[in-house]
Amino acid sequence: MLEIRWHSRAGQGAVTGAKGLADVISTTGKHVQAFAFYGSAKRGAAMTAYNRVDDKVIMNHEKYMEPDYIFVIDPALVFTSDVTINHKNTTKYIITTHLSKEELIKAQPKLEGKEIYTVDCITIANETIGRPIPNTPMLGAFMKVSGMYDIEFFKESMKRILAKLPPKIVDANMIAIQRAFDEVK
Amino acid sequence: MAFDKMELKDIEVWDGNFAAAQALRQAQVDVVAAYPITPSTPIVEGYAKFKSDNYVEGEFVMVESEHAAMSGCIGAAAAGGRVATATSSQGLALMVETLYQASGMRLPIVLNIVNRALAAPLNVNGDHSDMYLCRDSGWIQFDAFSPQGAYDLNFIAFKVSEDHDIRLPAIVNQDGFMTSHTAQGVHTLADDDAFGFVGTFKPMNDMLDFEHPVTHGVQTEEDWHFEHKARQHSDLMLKVSPKIDEVFADFEKLTGRKYSQVECYDIDDADVAVFCLGTSVETAREVAGEMRTKGIKAGVIGLRVIRPFPFEQVQEALKNIKAVAILDRSSPNGAPGAMFNEVCAAMYSHESSPLISGYVYGLGGRDLTKAHLVDLYNELQTNADAGKVTTQLQQFIGVRGPKLSFL
Description:
- The structure holds two protein chains of two kinds.
- Chain A is an alpha/beta fold.
- Chain A has one domain: Pyruvate-ferredoxin oxidoreductase, PFOR, domain III (Pyruvate-ferredoxin Oxidoreductase, domain 3).
- Chain A is built from seven helices and six strands; from the N terminus they run βαβββαβαβαααα.
- A six-stranded mixed β-sheet of chain A has the order 2-3-1-4-5-6, with helices on one face.
- In chain A, helix 1 (14-26) crosses helix 5, helix 4 (121-128) runs antiparallel to helix 7 (167-183) and helix 5 (135-146) crosses helix 7 (167-183).
- Chain B has two domains: 11-255, Rossmann fold; 262-406, Rossmann fold (3-Layer(aba) Sandwich).
- Chain B starts with 10 loop residues before the first strand and ends with a strand.
- Chain B is globular.
- In chain B, helix 1 packs parallel to helix 6 (147-162) and helix 3 packs parallel to helix 4 (89-104).
- Chain B has helices spanning 16-26, 41-52, 66-79, 89-104, 129-133, 147-162, 191-198, 221-255, 279-293, 311-318, 338-348, 370-386; strands at residues 11-14, 31-34, 59-62, 83-87, 110-115, 140-143, 170-175, 183-187, 262-265, 272-276, 298-303, 305-307, 323-328, 355-361, 394-397, 405-406.
- Strand 2 of chain A pairs antiparallel with strand 8 of chain B.
């Protein structure tokens, strides 16, 4: 079982990202689950979304999770939320930030000793898609860190999932995914 | 046909709401009259979009309340069409009066209820308070444990509900958020196969058949009211259950997916079992499997059909269990628990009964964790070993503060 927790703000596309990732993984024969905690959250409120992936049917519907990966797609959330809650020793973090890894850990000492990867999904999204929607770049970074799928296969799959968007936006997302794949450290 | 067909993958990653909306499209529902409420809104929104995009031939009626939504559905069903809608929580509460009208008028309507807590305090998350609110409304009630169930049970509900021997409305329940907003793999039916299974709507006593005028919504008073109600109850007790079994069997032939009115998992040799509804059934199945590796013979019973209550099947499922926990995801507010009471009634009149204890859990979407269920199975094993219920009869799972137990 592979488990992922997303830290996001409502409106940044974590739910779409989690569902998109689940959709891609499902086409490879694995079982998936994607869900989120909503409450009556308004745009901009901190929220979490979740993925489960397994070789067998996923029957666990508990919301509690000790994730293998933690994605933080808004840079301020490492300071305003506890992104390390319910973590394991092996949990890997992919964090959106303009800071270097060292600067980030200095600013948030809770991240000391954790396996951390950084990538500036907000800047990438702004420069490619033209809006600060950091969900698809985070998935590009995840492909690099996890080695889950070949990046070309992943981009082709995401093209199908994003097909209802205008072609220009789909192309921009592909560039964003590739940039995050190349730039994550 | 004048509408477009949709190509689906064999497995689509859908949440429970979208799965239900796709089922309404594939069943080619004629009329949806609806009013939005979280978390059920995407079902009727989905149907409306399919209609606008020419994937379904039907009418979407926007109304001013849930009371009007069901009233519109009643009118459309009496006129003679395939009718469906969806609601949750307070919306259902406002709809309750008209639910009794629909079933009393013997109109086939499919209502998707995305189960959500009832205020106050206000809460949009999933529990079964609304499910129990319409328990005695005369509707057939199914319960989905996952998005797959939400999809499949809609087809089954139309087929049972519209049968000319049945003619009773049907509810498909799914857990708010835990099913409705959780995307999972759903095995799909091709459009033609899905519609072929449900079949073309066959009207009966339809008001648009001007050659054969009929009256709907009559007043009967003392001389006939009781006979009408008794006949409705009799049909629920005698006709609906065999029809559901027949439709479940047809559905298995088409899809390979087997449904039962009482779903039993690892029950044959079980000493202890959890009896519950919704997504909790699946989480409990996973924990039961883990308890078995620790030497506890654990099983799970999930109620697939809530109404008509499968009294004899429940007796059959529980007769050899030593200790069972009945889980109620709703506050009984001064009683032992809605499902607890029903199961006790079934087992009291059977020659052998397990030790039965009741648990209230998960109100307002409170998480039921695997750790909770591990503790629960251990407690049941203690009861089984002691030969008696070692706790009070009613306990609470997952509520903060001092431990609550009663009776």
